């Protein structure tokens, strides 16, 4: 790994800036679910299908460009990519907040996704580049906790912003935060990039990867409207798989592929990403389904719903850094296996407790506590397990693959939840939601089973890193 000229850098400051950017991106993603109805009300002549692209376009663009952005992070510099992502994301947020038409709002959401795609892998790559390997699980757990906490508080923050200032405020609030983050990043973050600068990655491979992920995301996102087994859905998914197969074949043949597929030959990377996919499906399904359940079955307001979900978010915020220290000492596997089972227990509790009578303290709070504990054990450890066997030159690409898989898992989790809830009526809504709780139970168990395949590891706890001079090897 090469770095900018030697200067003193505090790893914890780097972690704080990277975590703040992650929080901003994840918060923006979650608050828009709450703001969607208010956005639709601003454009009453536009159909629901058209307005849904304010959500879908972002999801598809982000999933399609994450891996490529991660590869560019290692090639062109982590700080440069991070700052560029901040500028793009912040500018696009401003444009979204000022958008006069739905078409422009969708277009600016795509630009916003490009900024987020640059931010996510580069922020983690920056953290990995300044922390010694023994402290990586702690740092990654803290970084991951910021995103998980943003997901938990997103509904409440979004509801308060929308009710107080309208839907445009959920975008405009990013502007001052982004400006401050850019200034701090330029001043305080070190630059680093891959040590061995080879030829530019295969351009056709980059286009094939982005195209395949776009088609697969489109098929999943649109399956609700087209039908899960309809000809349009099957055609788009089949095309996506065909292009993906072409990408794999080309990546194995060219000397400088867009993504080095040998990453998946490393057991930790392979099994951590499989665990990520399974767990993210269940995590997103629970988040999305609980919002729907509380607003449609229990008739909670959006603010009440957000507040009801806060305990799990606070548990993640408090426990995740501690769990990172445990992972640093004993390895991620020892947390991931029981964590999946704890999360499965939350699904089981929801399955046997929730009914039409609102009873937050007895029916939902215990499940929320189990959810928070399970997520604290699992979510922050997934990324550190995935990158554990990677070299410093592969940080950006490895982090991006893990984030892309999370994005696909989240997209698929929402699609499955919508399919399981389809056709629900007031008289049978509880039965439809029980299908989702069963899905969550299954995902937790399967995540634990997948995590069993991770290599055993035990790392001694190293002292907290002091400020280190950039330009040395950590």
UniProtKB/TrEMBL annotation:
Its main location: membrane. It is a multi-pass membrane protein. Residues 14-459 form the Major facilitator superfamily (MFS) profile domain. The chain crosses the membrane at residues 12-36, 48-69, 81-100, 106-131, 138-161, 167-189, 201-220, 226-248, 269-291, 297-323, 335-352, 404-424, 436-454. PANTHER family: CONSERVED TWO-DOMAIN MEMBRANE PROTEIN-RELATED, MAJOR FACILITATOR SUPERFAMILY MULTIDRUG TRANSPORTER MFSC. It comes from Nocardioides cavernaquae. This is DHA2 family efflux MFS transporter permease subunit. InterPro entries: EmrB-like, MFS, MFS_dom, MFS_trans_sf. GO terms for cellular component: plasma membrane. Keywords: Cell membrane, Membrane, Transmembrane, Transmembrane helix, Transport. It comes from the Bacteria. One of its GO terms (molecular function) is transmembrane transporter activity. Pfam families: MFS_1. It is found in: Cell membrane.
């Amino acid at each position: 790994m090469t770095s900018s000229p030697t200067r003193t850098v505090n790893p914890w400051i780097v972690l704080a800036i990277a975590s703040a950017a992650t929080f901003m991106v994840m918060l923006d993603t979650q608050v828009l679910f709450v703001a969607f109805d208010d956005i639709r009300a601003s454009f009453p002549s536009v159909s629901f299908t058209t307005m849904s692209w304010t959500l879908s376009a972002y999801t598809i663009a982000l999933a399609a460009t994450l891996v490529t952005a991660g590869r560019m992070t290692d090639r062109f510099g982590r700080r440069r990519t991070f700052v560029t992502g901040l500028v793009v994301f912040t500018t696009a947020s401003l444009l979204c907040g000022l958008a006069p038409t739905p078409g422009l709002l969708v277009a600016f959401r795509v630009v916003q996704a490009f900024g987020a795609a640059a931010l996510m892998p580069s922020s983690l790559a920056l953290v990995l580049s300044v922390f010694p390997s023994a402290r990586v699980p702690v740092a990654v757990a803290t970084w991951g906790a910021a995103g998980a906490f943003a997901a938990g508080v997103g509904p409440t923050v979004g509801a308060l912003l929308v009710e107080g200032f309208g839907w445009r405020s959920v975008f405009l609030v990013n502007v001052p935060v982004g400006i401050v983050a850019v200034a701090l990043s330029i001043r305080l973050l070190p630059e680093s990039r891959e040590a061995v600068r080879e030829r530019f990655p295969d351009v056709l491979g980059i286009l094939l990867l982005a195209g395949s992920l776009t088609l697969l995301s489109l098929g999943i996102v649109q399956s609700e409207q087209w039908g899960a087994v309809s000809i349009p859905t099957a055609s788009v998914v089949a095309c996506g798989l065909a292009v993906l197969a072409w990408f794999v074949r080309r990546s194995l043949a060219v000397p400088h592929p867009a993504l080095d597929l040998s990453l998946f030959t490393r057991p930790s990377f392979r099994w951590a990403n499989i665990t990520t996919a399974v767990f993210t499906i269940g995590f997103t399904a629970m988040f999305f389904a609980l919002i729907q359940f509380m607003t449609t079955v229990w008739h909670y307001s959006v603010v009440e719903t957000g507040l009801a979900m806060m305990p799990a978010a606070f548990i993640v915020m408090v426990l995740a850094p501690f769990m990172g220290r445990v992972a640093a000492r004993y390895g991620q596997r020892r947390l991931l296996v029981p964590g999946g089972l704890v999360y499965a227990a939350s699904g089981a509790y929801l399955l046997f407790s929730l009914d039409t009578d609102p009873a937050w303290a007895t029916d939902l709070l215990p499940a929320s506590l189990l959810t928070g504990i399970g997520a604290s054990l699992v979510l922050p450890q997934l990324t550190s397990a995935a990158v554990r066997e990677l070299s410093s030159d592969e940080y950006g690409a490895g982090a991006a693959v893990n984030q892309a898989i999370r994005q696909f898992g989240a997209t698929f989790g929402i699609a499955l939840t919508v399919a399981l809830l389809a056709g629900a009526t007031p008289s049978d809504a509880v039965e439809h939601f029980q299908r989702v709780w069963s899905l969550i139970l299954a995902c937790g168990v399967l995540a634990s089973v997948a995590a069993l395949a991770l290599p055993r590891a035990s790392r001694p706890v190293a002292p907290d890193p002091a400020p280190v001079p950039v330009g040395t090897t950590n």
